[in-house]
Amino acid sequence: MKPFIKNSLLGFLLVFISFVVQLATAEDHWHGVARIVAVGDIHGDYENFVKVLTAAGLIDRRGNWAADDTHFVQLGDLPDRGPDTDEIIEHMKNLERQARRGGGMVHALIGNHEAMNMLGDLRYVHADEYEALRSRRARTLRDNLYKRLVARLLVANPEFVTDAAHREEFDSLYPLGFVEHRMAWSVDGEFGSWVRAHNAVIKINRSLFLHGGISPEVLGTSISEINDRIRSDLGGTLEEVLGLSETQSGPLWYRGLANNDEAMEQAHVEAVLAFYDVDRIVVGHTPGLGTIVPRFGGKVLVIDTGISAYYGGHMASLLIEGDKLIALQNGVARPVPLGEEPLLPYFRSIAEQESIPAALQNLIESLSIAPQLSN
C-alpha cells in the first residue's frame, strides 16, 4: 500500500473512531426500555461486585452478560476503599461489549471517586491499588519521578541536598505502582479515557440516574450540559478544576436528596422532577442503611447500600420494570414502598434477613415508636 493512501486511511479511521466516541458520549436519554437494573457504589470490591450482579441476573456463573436487552446502570464510585478497581473496570468493559451484542446496554456513570482519581485526589486509594498496577518498570518509573522532584527542589533552592532519609520518605509516599496508577487515570490513560467517555447523568424512561444528586444550584442545567461540563473538568487538574466535578453542590457530591429533611427538601425534589420530566431520581453516594432507601414517597431512591466489604457488604440492587420498583437484596425481591405505603414492614423484613447497620436499626425503632412517621 502506498504511504499516502495508508496515512489517509489511518486518518479517516481516527476521525471515524472519534466521531463514534463523541456520539456515544452525547447520548444520555433512552426510551422504551423494558427492564433496568441499577447498582450503587462498588468501591474496589470485585468479589461483591460479581455477587451483586449475579444476584440481579445480569451475569452468569462465568461472569458473562446474561440479561438480554436489560439496561444496567452503575451509579459510579467503582474505585477506592478496596483493592480491585482494575479487575472491576476490565469486567465492566467486557460487559459493555457483551450487552450491546445482546441488545442491552451498560451505563457506567461517573462518580466523585472517579473524578478524584483523575484529578489527583488520592486520599482513599487502597494501597493494593498501586500494587495491582505495578509493572516491571516500576522502580525505573519511580526513580525517574524522584529525579524530577529533586530537579524542581534544586530550582527552588540550589542548596538543597538529598539524603537517604529524604528518599525513604519519598518511597513511603509514592509506592511502587504509583506512577502506573497515575498513568492509568490520566486523561489518555486506560482508566481515565474510559471514565471520560461516559456520562454523569442519564435519563431512562421516566427515571433520572446520577451519583450524588441535583442541587438547587445545578437545577436548570440540562443533562447534556452537565455531562459536557464534567467531562471538560476531568481534562484538567485538581488545582484548575472549580466546576461541577469538585463542588459539594455538584451532581457528583450533593447529598441533599439523601440526607436533608424531607419537608424542607420536598419543593426542590418536585422542581427537579418537573424540570427533567421524570417520575423519580435514583442516586448513590450516601451509604448507611444497607438497603434501597425510598424517600419522598419513592420519588427519590438512594441505592448506595454499602456493597463493598469496607461498608459491610450489604448487597442489593434496584430493578425497574414499567411502574414496578423492586429491591433485590441478597437474591430476595421486595417491592419498594411508594407514595403513602408504610416503610416499617419493608425495613423490618430486611432486618429479619441479614445483619443490618446500626443506622437502619435506629430507624426501625423510631418508626416503631411513631408509626405515623412511616407514611
Short description:
The chain has 375 residues and is an alpha/beta fold. It has helices at residues 3-26, 46-55, 85-101, 112-119, 127-133, 138-156, 164-173, 178-184, 190-196, 223-233, 256-259, 262-276, 344-353, 358-369; strands spanning 29-30, 36-39, 71-74, 105-108, 201-204, 207-210, 280-283, 293-295, 300-302, 316-321, 324-329, 332-335. The protein has a six-stranded mixed beta sheet. Strands 4-3-2-10-11-12 form a six-stranded mixed beta sheet.
Structural features, described:
- There is one protein chain.
- The radius of gyration is 23 Å and the shape is globular.
- A hairpin with a 2-residue loop joins β11 (324-329) and β12 (332-335).
- With 375 residues, it is an alpha/beta fold.
- The model is unreliable at 2-7 and 10-25 (pLDDT under 50).
- The protein contains 14 helices and twelve strands.
- The chain has helices at 3-26, 46-55, 85-101, 112-119, 127-133, 138-156, 164-173, 178-184, 190-196, 223-233, 256-259, 262-276, 344-353, 358-369; strands at 29-30, 36-39, 71-74, 105-108, 201-204, 207-210, 280-283, 293-295, 300-302, 316-321, 324-329, 332-335.
- It folds into two domains: 27-124 and 190-324, Metallo-dependent phosphatases (Purple Acid Phosphatase, chain A, domain 2, 4-Layer Sandwich), CATH 3.60.21; 135-176, no CATH class.
- The strands form two sheets. The protein has a six-stranded mixed sheet with strand order 1-5-6-7-9-8. It has a six-stranded mixed sheet with strand order 4-3-2-10-11-12.
- The termini are far apart.
- The longest helix has 24 residues, at 3-26.
